[in-house]
Amino acid sequence: MSFFKLLIGLLFLGFGGLFLAAALGVLPSGVWPWLMRFWPVLLLAFALVLIGKALKNIALSVFALALVAGAFVAGGYWLSKQAAKQEPPSQTTVIDLGTAGAGWIQLRGRTIGGSYTVSVEPGQRGKVAVSGRDLLGRESTALGWKVEKNAGHLTWPAKPGTGDLAAFGSSFDVRLPERVPLRWDTSNYFAFGTVDFTRGVLLACSTRVVSSSVKLRVGDGRPREILVKGFLSNVEIDLPPGCPARVEYTSRLTWPSLPEDFLEHVSGRVKGKAAFWTAEGKGPVVRILVDGHLMRLRVTRESRKEAALVR
């Protein structure tokens, strides 16, 4: 029996289970930074297996396998609890849009193994507040800001390429002013994102997700289209009450969860295949397009008061 191969298989099984749980939204945001802190456990397991093999000590190798299995089971539960208790970033950078001369904001981000929160601050006028922590929990604000042709470009990481490694496992918190037009474009890899634009004006919305979980809430200032591209991810979209919508997805390996008033439209060319779903309402129609495989999509249009009571 090769304990080394069993260990490799157990590692793939454990990490695969964590990635799947993250993609389905089971694990809360902030788990990956906590998980990466305890990577030395894997080195201990490899060392025990190698020593056990050299000494021909089966008990030592079995103990190493049990150590890894126990780390994934107990550690995953413990990490999720710790992530929920994690303190929000405290170092804050404030950007004055009036001084900077920005009339609207282009928000772009690339998150790898980390998390981010974007929200609109009630009553806030003309100022953007940005804060963050790196993988080790240290305060950091690795975001870029520049103004071009009346548009304020807010990006993370601040530097492309090598900046991705510096921002790996980082968490960001961005608070935007009310009624400032926004364009949102993010890429998420093994990441968690929570975006609340219920008080904002969202001009365009596009996100790429790979084994990630993203929750998006929009208000009356909603975009005409929400585009989601990716693989093995969980996406939740909360629309305002009575908002007309059209939902489409390109892959049969997509699991939608829609309100009861959404009507299914079946394609005449492909028997039994749903083409899209629609819901009636007032105002412009929001088109939600999901392009990717193994995607879980949940759309809600619940009352804000009901949502507050549930929470």
Walk me through what this model shows:
With 311 residues, the protein is an alpha/beta fold. It has 7 helices and 17 strands. The protein has helices spanning 3-23, 31-37, 40-55, 58-85, 97-100, 162-166, 304-310; strands at 92-96, 104-112, 115-120, 127-133, 144-148, 151-156, 171-176, 181-189, 192-197, 201-210, 213-218, 225-238, 245-249, 254-257, 263-266, 274-279, 286-300. The protein has a 17-stranded mixed β-sheet that branches. A hairpin with a 7-residue loop joins strand 15 (263-266) and strand 16. The longest helix is centred in the N-terminal third of the chain and has 28 residues, at 58-85. The protein starts with a helix and ends with a helix. The model is unreliable at 304-311 (pLDDT under 50).
What can be said about this structure in brief?
By secondary structure, the chain is of the alpha/beta class.
> What ranges have pLDDT less than 50 throughout 5 or more consecutive residues?
304-311
Ends distance: 51 Å
Helix content: 25-40%
Compute the average pLDDT.
77
Strands, count: 17
Question: What key phrases describe this protein's structure?
Answer:
28% helix, 7 helices, disordered C terminus, 17-stranded mixed sheet, 311 residues, 40% strand, alpha/beta
Topology at a glance:
Layout: H1 3-23, H2 31-37, H3 40-55, H4 58-85, E1 92-96, H5 97-100, E2 104-112, E3 115-120, E4 127-133, E5 144-148, E6 151-156, H6 162-166, E7 171-176, E8 181-189, E9 192-197, E10 201-210, E11 213-218, E12 225-238, E13 245-249, E14 254-257, E15 263-266, E16 274-279, E17 286-300, H7 304-310
Parallel strand pairs: 2-6, 2-8, 3-7, 3-9, 8-10, 9-11, 10-12, 11-12, 12-17, 13-17, 14-17
Antiparallel strand pairs: 1-4, 4-7, 5-6, 13-16, 15-16
